[in-house]
Description:
Elements: E1 14-15, H1 16-19, E2 35-36, H2 39-51, H3 54-61, E3 97-102, E4 105-109, H4 121-126, E5 133-136, E6 148-151, E7 154-155, E8 167-169, E9 171-173, E10 177-179, H5 185-193, H6 199-209, E11 211-212, E12 217-219, H7 225-242, E13 260-263, E14 272-275, E15 280-283, E16 286-289, H8 293-297, E17 299-300, E18 303-304, H9 305-314, H10 332-360, H11 368-373, E19 394-395, E20 401-402
Parallel strand pairs: 3-7
Antiparallel strand pairs: 1-12, 2-4, 3-4, 5-6, 5-8, 9-10, 11-12, 13-16, 14-15, 15-16, 17-18, 19-20
Helix pairs in contact: 6-7, 7-10
Amino acid sequence: MPGVTNDGPLTDAMPLSDLMPWSVAPLRLGRAWPVAPDAAALKARWDAFVAAPLGRREALLQPSRSRTLRTAAAQLPRQRAGTEPLARAEGPCPEPVRILHGPFDEQWLIPDQRLIDAARPELWRVADDRQLFLVEQGYVPDAGGPALLACAILPEGRSPAGRPGGIRPLYRRPAATEPNIAPGLLPHLSARYGHEVHPESLLAWILATATRDAKEVRVPLPVDPEVWARGVELGRRTLWLHQRGDGADRPRLPGGRRPYVRAPLPPRPTELLYDREEEALLIGDGRISPVPAPAWDFQVSGVRVLEQWFARRTAPAEPGTLAAVRPSAWPRQWTSELLELIAVLALLAELEPQRQDLRAGLGGLLGPYDLRRAGIIPVPPASRRPATVLDQPEEGPGGQFAFL
Length: 404
């Protein structure tokens, strides 16, 4: 049996790239202003952009090698935006969409490919209300935090530190068809565990057990069906928290505890501190408590999540740029999102001992030899490429339709 330790590598753990073969590189925005935590600010930025004369418009765009005022670009799949060069753009802002801008940081994006250096259209084609994404986090030696994050909205894929990994959709086609899973793996696991293994169950297991090193994310596959069942249950809870619950049931701290605003937040906060003794988050003269220490200490790729979330809403922007168009005062909605994020991070931290116990008790693993003998690896090269998807017309540059 392969040896397992609480903090060491699992010798027979499988590379995630062999279990979910298709991955897409992170989006590369190229400029900061088309993304914001406030959708109204994005519409105001767009209005200022299209109202500007041509010379000023070019400066506002912040052109790059990939995107200028004269660059032709197609519509993003499932989105409505103009396809004429930005030099001639007019009319209302394309409706902003919710994205995962960074770890546990949901923001809004103008879904216009003319504004994005590398938008990864193949991701947009499969992003629907039944899709789930795993996002590999950058490796930082000796840093804590999860190797993977999960979301149902389109992820940008950026990592707060270290080199970002890939974005792995659970399904290769819309409507939850054709799982992005090595051919033959689900039937093989189903036979091993004595019941049908669904794609969502494998994703939950991966989320509960994945680790990463400098090279890749690795996932142990247990021999024991009972270990598998415990891991899937833990992974489903983790997935629910990564998605901030659902519309009817939101994350709440155990024992009836709940973070509250004890002193009003200032209109334009610039400083975030933590009082460990009082379990209080100090935002200028504002105060939120209780904030459990594990929520404050929660990190991804060595970066504290709450500090980064706050910084992305308060960092100064260069005057005269579109990024400087933002709410004049801290919106109430941001406070609600912050309170929810505190609960999510605290609850995720509570799951970590269960995850360590699970890893310590994995027992025997299905390793590369088992999967190779079953014909599952190496995976076919086609599994690592996007599927052909054409479920709706896509408008190309200048108004012509694209054919895939």
